[in-house]
Design brief:
With 304 residues, the chain is mainly β. The chain has a domain at 34-132: Beta Barrel (Thrombin, subunit H). The chain is 0% helix and 50% strand. The chain has strands at 6-10, 15-18, 23-26, 50-56, 59-64, 68-73, 81-84, 93-100, 106-112, 116-121, 127-132, 137-142, 148-153, 158-162, 168-172, 179-184, 190-195, 199-204, 213-216, 224-227, 233-237, 240-247, 255-269, 275-281, 287-292. Strand 20 and strand 21 (233-237) form a beta hairpin. Keywords: Repeat, WD repeat. It holds the Pfam family WD40. WD repeats lie at residues 172-213.
């Protein structure tokens, strides 16, 4: 049912890669150097070790292992905003998300190991809100309509909260360990959560009493989840070696397993769903794998 066409390209952390032009440019290296930006909101930062990243439209946001937050515009040189959110022992920035709120304004959401979620305005970078929880927050994601917030962390229970107020409105029970990944289906009704128990659970946001389905990994925790922009496929990444691509139209029964070698740094679908990119984290063989969706007469629905 599914065919694979793979192209391997070396990727250094200090480069920006264009899949259209098939070229690299020095860009991300700016994140690894001492940062200084004039303005009342920015603070100078020493060399940053990146822990998480997110891109939406023209804005790229990165978090660091020492609680840093760095924002850059893709069409402009230099750093637009940088600061250290927290300096405690649990300072690591675990997740960042860029989203549109329910009123259309763009927001930046930052989850840290200090059990707090912070919200910033994506235009002014002013701090808008802080939500506190009982455990370290490993991952957050906002629903497509900007109204709901998934909160996952050092707890077997996952939470649903109001994205504007942070008030918890529901809980998801079924995982057996800590959670690290989440993704919303574009229709806003299905939420996928990834857990240390090597499973991904699917939840109907209209009925949270139990999960709709449980998708199993091979060996490791589910560390990455991504839906295609049309909602047709769900990619599920383990910490190393395996990425699983599920066909949502088959009720997640049909699946392609991509077996690679190395630790998986992240993954992302192209906006047109024609490509799946997988980052490999390795000092020697660090690379970006590009899997192109294949179309032919006999496999019109085949993918990567």
């Amino acid at each position: 049912m599914m065919c694979i066409l793979c192209k391997i390209t070396q990727l250094c952390i200090g480069h920006h890669y264009s899949s259209v032009a098939k070229k690299y440019s020095m860009w991300l290296n700016q994140l690894l150097q001492p940062q200084q930006r004039t303005g009342l909101l920015s603070k100078s930062l020493s060399r940053v070790q990146i822990s998480t990243m997110a891109v939406k439209e023209n804005l790229m946001v990165a978090g660091g292992f020492q609680g840093e937050l760095i924002c850059m515009y893709l069409n402009q040189p230099g750093v637009a905003f940088c600061t250290r959110i927290t300096t405690g022992e649990n300072a690591i920035t675990n997740a960042v998300d860029v989203y549109h709120s329910h009123n259309g304004s763009m927001r930046i959401m930052v989850a840290n190991n200090d059990a707090q979620i912070r919200v910033f305005d994506a235009e002014t970078f002013a701090s808008l809100n802080t939500f506190s929880f009982d455990w370290s927050v490993n991952n957050t994601s906002v629903s497509p309509d900007g109204k709901l917030l998934a909160v996952l962390g050092d707890s077997a229970e996952c939470l649903i909260a109001d994205a504007n107020s942070g008030k918890v409105t529901g809980s998801l029970k079924g995982h057996l360990d800590y959670s690290f990944a989440s993704a919303w289906h574009p229709n806003g009704q299905i939420l996928a959560t990834g857990n240390q128990d090597t499973t991904c659970r699917l939840w109907d946001i209209r009925n949270l009493t139990q999960s709709l389905a449980v998708l199993k990994g091979n060996m490791g925790a589910v560390r990455g989840l991504k839906f295609t922009s049309d909602g047709r496929f769900l990619a599920m990444a383990e910490p190393a070696d395996f990425v699983h691509v599920f066909d949502t139209q088959s009720d997640y029964v049909k699946c392609q397993e991509i077996d690679i070698f190395g630790e998986i740094a992240g993954m992302s679908f192209s906006p047109d769903t024609e490509a799946l990119f997988i980052g490999i984290a390795d000092r020697t063989y660090g690379s970006l794998l590009e899997f192109n969706r294949r179309h032919c007469n006999f496999y019109l629905d085949s993918i990567f």
